[in-house]
Predict the 3D structure of the following.
Amino acid sequence: MMQPTEEAYRHWHEEGYLVFENAIQGEELARLQSAFDHWAAVCKEDWLLSIERGEASATFYDIPNVLKKDEVFIDLVDHPGFYGHLMAFTDNDLIFLGPQARTVPPWVMSYTGWHPDVPPDHPLHIKVQIYINDVESNSGEFAYVPGSHKPGAGPYSRVHNLAAMPGHKRFTGKAGTAIMFNSYGWHVAMDNHTSVPRKSIILIYERRTPGRVEPGKFAAITSSANTPDRRRLFSLV
């Protein structure tokens, strides 16, 4: 399992993010892309009906219960391409909170604005976003304000023009790129002005903290939690 270098530690603590190019590649990436596209297509009609009923947004779509759909999605959660860094940054005491298998269609504006996910007094909260397809500039790419995760950083304004956020960095990348970021920091999905949907999987983690562990949350995939480390990661112990 790959461990962070001194430079990676420094960058993580100072900037709040790391990029892992080619974290997923080859046959594994092809299988992931195939599974993502298959289940997105299977579930699309229900999503469109939900939009008609006013129950869902037209600006993004998540494959529901994605961990139950294919083992390839479960294998991402502790993937060796980045999992060693997650464990190191949480002192080997990590829990998985859930996935978002997300499609962002072309749209005149993003489904979200600039925001942090949790306040700085919340247990350390980390996300890993994996690009399923190539993501270019102005195609709904992830963006982050480096250093905004630090105590006392800011203040930051929720600017309506996403490109107007001072000091932000946009993350383009090839399919299989993984972006790990501290969720205390300000981030967004940029507007998608292309004709191609942006596809990604967002994995959500947290430092294990009493009261935050939900033992039954991933009971449906117990058979896939076949090691002590996985059982702990999925809050099954």
